[in-house]
Amino acid sequence: MNQQLAGFAPAPVAARMENHGNHMLKVAMQTGNDLLARVGSMVAYEGFVQYEPNPPAVRQIAKDWMTGEGAPLMKCSGDGLLYLSDYGANVVVINLNGDAISVNATNLLAFDAHLTWGVERVKGLAKFAGQGLWNTKISGQGWVALTSRGKPIVVDCGGGEDETYVDPDALVAWSPNLKVKGKRSFKAQSLIGRGSGEAFQMAFSGQGIVVVQPSEDSTDRLRVRG
C-alpha cells in the first residue's frame, strides 16, 4: 500500500510556495517570514506553526475591505510545511519579484506578510453599481497564491488598441497598471453572465495580464457597497 501511495507524497521543497497537485498549496514556513492566509484554508502542517486570526495589521486595513466587515485572513508563523486549499479550487502561485497584482478578495488564498497590500476601489466602475468594485492590491518582493474555480486563462492584453472584456464574476486578478472601464450591454444580456437585468463587462487595455476563471463567482461583484 505504501508504494501505491508514494506518488502522492510531497516533493522536496524548492521554493517558498509551490503547488501540490492542482488544488493544494505548499508553503515552506520559516521563523520571521510570516504568511497571511485565508481563514479556514489550512488542511495540514508539519513542524511548529501558529495561527492568529484577524491580526492587528489586517484589522487596520479591513476598515476599507468590501462591506467593512473585515478581511477573512489569519497570520501564520513558525517553522515547517503548511498546506492550504480552498474547497478544491485550483491554486495559482505567483512570485511577484517586485511587481504588483490586483486580486479579487474571494480569490486570494495566501501571501507573504511583508508584502505591501491594501484595499483599493477600482476606478471607472462607480457609475455602474453604487460605489463600484473593490480589489486587493499586493506589491513587492514575495509570493502570492490565488484560487480559481477551474483552470484559469491568463490573457495578455498586449498593449494594443483592442480592449479585453471580462465578466466581473469570472475575474480573478489583473495587472494594476491596466486601464479599466465598465461596459453595459443590452443586446447580449441573455448571453453574458448569469445575472438578471443588464449585463456588465470590465474592459482592460494597456500592458499587462488578466486572469479569468471558467466559473463565475456566486457573489455579485457589482452590488452596491455603502
Molecular structure report:
This protein is mainly β. It has a single domain (14-217), classed as Mitochondrial biogenesis AIM24 (Double-stranded beta-helix). The chain contains two helices and 17 strands. Strands 1, 2, 3, 4, 5, 6, 8 and 11 form an eight-stranded antiparallel beta sheet that branches. Strands 9-10-7-14-17-12 form a six-stranded antiparallel beta sheet, with no helix packed on it.
Low-confidence stretches: 66-70, 220-226
CATH superfamily: Mitochondrial biogenesis AIM24
- Total count of strands: 17
Number of helices: 2
N-C termini distance: 56 Å
- Given the helix and strand composition, which structural class is it? mainly beta
**Radius of gyration over C-alpha positions, nearest whole angstrom:** 18 Å
What coarse outline follows from CA principal-axis ratios? globular
What is the total domain count?
1
Helix content: under 10%
Main sheet overview: 8 strands, antiparallel
> CATH first level: which class?
Alpha Beta
**Reported CATH architecture:** 4-Layer Sandwich
Helices and strands, in order, run as HEEEEHEEEEEEEEEEEEE
Strand proportion, as a percent range, falls in 35-45%
CATH fold title: Double-stranded beta-helix
Pfam families: AIM24
